[in-house]
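Go through this pair.

…
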Amino acid sequence: MPSPAPSAARRALAAPLACALLAALDAASAGPAVAAYAAGLGVALGALGGLAWAGLGSALTRLPRPLALLPWLAPGALLGWWLIEELGARARLGGPHHDLAVFALLAAAGLTVALGALLAGLQPVAGAPDGLLARGRGRVALLVALPVLALAAAWIDRTRFVGLYPAAHTALRLLTLGAAVAAAGLVRRRPLPRPARVALLALAAGLAGLPFFALHRDADRPLGALAARPLPGLMLDAARALTDVDRDGASALLGGGDRDAFAAPAEPPAVPPAPGAAVPPTPTGPAPTSVVLITIDTLRPDRMSLHGHPRRTTPAIDAFAEGALVFERAVTPGGWTSLAISSLMRGVAPRRLRWTKVVETSDYRLTKWRDRATLDRRLRLRMMFGLPLDDPHPPLAARLAARGMHTVAVVDDGYSQFLSAGLGAGQGFADFRSVDDLPKPRRTDRGTTDLALAALDARPPEQRFFLWVHYFGPHDPTRRHPDAEWYGAGVADGYDHEVAYADRQVGRLLERLDAIAAAEPLAVVLTSDHGEAFYARRRMHGLGLQPAVLRIPLIVRAPGVAPGRSPAPATLLDVHPTLLALTDTPPGPGLDGMDLRRLPPDRVVTADTWRYDRDGEPVWDKAAATDGRHVLRLDRVRNLRAVWAMDDLSHAPDDLTGLVDAAHLEAALGRYLDATGGGRVILVE
């Protein structure tokens, strides 16, 4: 049997060289320093992987051929199984995304077989020191096919489902690195002279240690730049996981967030404290005004003609705003609907609320975690969420109902159930009307307005009322409506079409409200739950807290509120105390919002977004603070900071860390996190 030593040596050298080169090229756009850090990570991790690959391959050469090949099937099988579970492919079978689930299962199975076969085919055996696949012309074929595979995986990673399915992107990045390393390990070359080998080894050692010494915990900008690129980001996560000595989810190196490498942090409080003071007595007389709250899902202010968009997408809202106070720097407190609306209705920041475990099943229905035993056994659990089902803070409708007002809601939450009456959104409403109860063709913004007009017709006479109407139209997916202008097939064009259609239907409701306001006092607030980020082929929200998702429209027209434009930073949390003040309802304790009529100009507000897997572990957890000009975002899972200009509405805004003074944002975010326990949000049963 030929000696495996030459093959093992090539592999041990090829892995760090290939990883360093790919990482440096991926990070080159961030500057030479960041590219050097990326190359250092590539050398360090590639050396570990290369030595493991070479060592295991050498050890297996002592076994008979079948036994030497079989162990290499395990990595492919483990990766395929992990990918299937992370994508929830089995749980999606039989549901609305059955075809996508089948594709995911087939793709994972194909990856399992291909990876196992490739690794087994590269195992040195008798007569084939580089593996059975690399014999004769097979080596040339592999030297062509493997780089093509690496390029194809990298292209798919960067162009398909960007921002979605992180497990699939991780698999593609591993495939990119693995294919490149395998190709490099097949290249035969003459040994370098001893002095050159010593110099190269010293350079590699210095390069490998560079990021661990240079990227201390305060090096936010290069760390952010590394994390933003696919391959360096994967290596950064791997390096942190390997240096997490006490296995507490954080590393003391590379800005990993661990202040004590050998002691796990104390557990954060499981439940935020309940309000400590009693709600002040409610006046017995009638409220001075009725109030209407209109929320339009996923509405970006920059796509509204009200805020300067060249397309006349919102003429009805423009006309409404002429007699209203328009806030130009309003933001959401939560990156997706369940966070934003829950906080809006309570006037309390997301991390201060008590979140109850809710699971989504394979038929896309939500159920309480504690009720999961009652589910049909054929259903599988897809994902876990939190809803404030048992939160002690009274929602706005309950406060206004206690004030003696008639409370009614008209809600369209599309294909989700986050705003269903049975899961908390109906608390305090005497009349809750869901668009889901309409025939399917009428479950549109037109149907929402029809229900709202009917609710207004049915309200008790001579009684102040609170009406909440939630439109879903601008949320994805884009659908074509014959009675709204079609701007084109692009992502932003389709979104503008949905905004124009929503405006036409909201305009019908605003006309009725104008008639009511002519006869009796009426306050109207129009806003959105969050914004939307545009990518090349789709749009989305909830994953991050970039300005495109944070910024929302906020318009208030009420008796005694002077029309105009306000540059003061505002948040959805302010709606609750404002409507209480307008109805002469005493505010309860623990509110985080302020009366929109009295906002200070130098205010800093916060926002959050998070999501959990089926076991309740955080997939991501992000918090942000903004003064309306810049936003500081902290990724609490990866301990990465970024500073963005609030006017940069791209899906990947430029990181301004170190270029602008964000000390006040850092301090405000720190105070917010300290006041809410400091740890991740805990879901309770």
About this structure: The chain has 19 helices and 20 strands. The CA atoms of residues 548 and 650 lie 7 Å apart. The longest helix spans residues 32-60.
